[in-house]
Amino acid sequence: MRLIGRESATPTEQDQPGWLSPGPWTSTFRRTAEGDATVGGVSLRNIAGRFGTPSYVVDETDVRRRCRAYRAALPDATVAYAAKAFLCRAMADWVRTEGLSLDVCSGGELALARSVGFPAERIIFHGNAKTPHELHDAVDYGVGRIVLDNVTEIARLAVLVPLGRRQKVLLRITPDVEAGAHAAIRTGGEGQKFGLSLVTGDAAMAVNQVLGQPGLELAGLHCHIGSQIATVEPFQEAARVMVRQMARIRDTYGLVLPELDLGGGHGIAYLPGERGLDPRHFAAAVTAAVRERCAGLGLPVPRLTVEPGRAVSGPAGITLYRVIVVKRQGSTTFVAVDGGMSDNPRPSLYGAQYTMALIGRRSAAVNRRVTVVGHHCESGDVIAEDVSMPADVHPGDLIAVAATGAYNHSMASTYNLTARPPVVAVSEGTARLVVRREEPADLLVRDVGL
Ligand SMILES: Cc1ncc(COP(=O)(O)O)c(C=O)c1O
Ligand SMILES: N[C@@H](CCCC[NH3+])C(=O)O
Description:
Blueprint: E1 2-3, E2 30-31, E3 37-39, E4 42-43, H1 44-51, E5 55-59, H2 60-73, E6 78-82, H3 89-97, E7 101-104, H4 107-115, E8 123-125, H5 132-141, E9 145-148, H6 152-158, E10 167-174, E11 177-178, E12 196-197, H7 202-211, E13 216-222, H8 233-253, E14 259-261, H9 279-297, E15 303-306, H10 310-313, E16 317-329, E17 332-337, H11 346-350, E18 356-359, E19 367-373, E20 382-390, E21 398-402, E22 423-427, E23 430-435, H12 440-444
Parallel strand pairs: 1-11, 5-22, 6-7, 6-15, 7-8, 8-9, 9-10, 10-12, 10-13, 13-14, 14-15, 17-19
Antiparallel strand pairs: 2-3, 3-4, 5-16, 16-17, 16-21, 18-21, 19-20, 22-23
Helix pairs in contact: 2-9, 8-9
Bound molecules: pyridoxal-5'-phosphate and lysine (LYS).
EC number: 4.1.1.20
Organism: Sphaerisporangium aureirubrum
InterPro entries: Ala_racemase/Decarboxylase_C, DAP_deCOOHase_LysA, De-COase2_N, De-COase2_pyr-phos_BS, Orn/DAP/Arg_de-COase, PLP-binding_barrel
């Protein structure tokens, strides 16, 4: 396995300042003189008052700006938003109306896309263990591309395609290039569960088998090397490996594949001073690498697809918590809030770090170091360790956490039978509920009793 590039989003010389918001807060975030903050022109204190805490706030304007920035940076490519980062009907609609495609990776995500009539041709269906039922639903809806991850699902899919139809497929190849902020989210190397290995021969076998299925059309190759990647080099390297494989297929079968999907994984800023991967920089560097390698191999340049998830929704999200308890224990001051690892499991899963601010009032107190924790029954239930907070922080205060728009709502759980927070969308001075708060009754509804 070749691990390329840095593992977190720190500034580089190539990074272009001004890619929307340079820091971790969403691009419409503003502090007010009274110590409050607004997003999309709406006071966060008012949102907390109206919708309660904890609440996820998502900035529609910022999401739309990010969609547009991707389309502008890659006008000749397909930009597919990776739904796993954050999906609800409103989000699917924003993405659809901004002209993006949608990457889904489960029957549930497909069902949501279908429920809002997301154009089937613009859906890419993923998964390393798609059930026959999921494959059936994907074919039934007529999704544009199914990404085959293993040899087993080739025949399984082929029998589901109605006679006279051809299902476009991509083959997910393991380029043996990986990068990403944590081992658990590096997905491009040999020895992890995703994709078809070039080393074992599975990739070559899969090409052969797909070409033998009249109901399947091999449209191209796919790879996804990891997530929260801050530099372009790993993407360039993966692109070169993939183009080489496309040339091999041309040499073996005389078939020129028209598409190359390079997955997602673009990093964002979580802390002040960090910068996300700028799509303009990504586009310039990666298209140059593809063009150069294609020219060297005498291959036409394929149509590119990218699948950013975090980079579209992550910076647009803020989580609001209410402080419940402030407690000094040993040398640590714990600020305990009304949420935690059930609405944000990322610190405990990946050691992820976040930026936060006391909002809703102005404090004249000096700052001190505190650890913000949740209300769950684990000492690892930490939202942010050793962060700066006004020394007079007290129960009833509001805390806003930046850059929680990706992999927070989508990874939330009901641990300790905690109801999951609502999602409040803000735009142009108005706030509206797009996902309601889970109620205790929701938590009991599946429990059929004794
Ligand atoms: C196949 C695929 N595409 C896209 C993504 C989106 O990743 P990110 O949110 O890091 O852009 C993922 C998740 O890492 C993925 O597995
Ligand atoms: N869940 C991960 C990202 C995984 C990306 C999906 N392949 C995170 O929160 O960073």
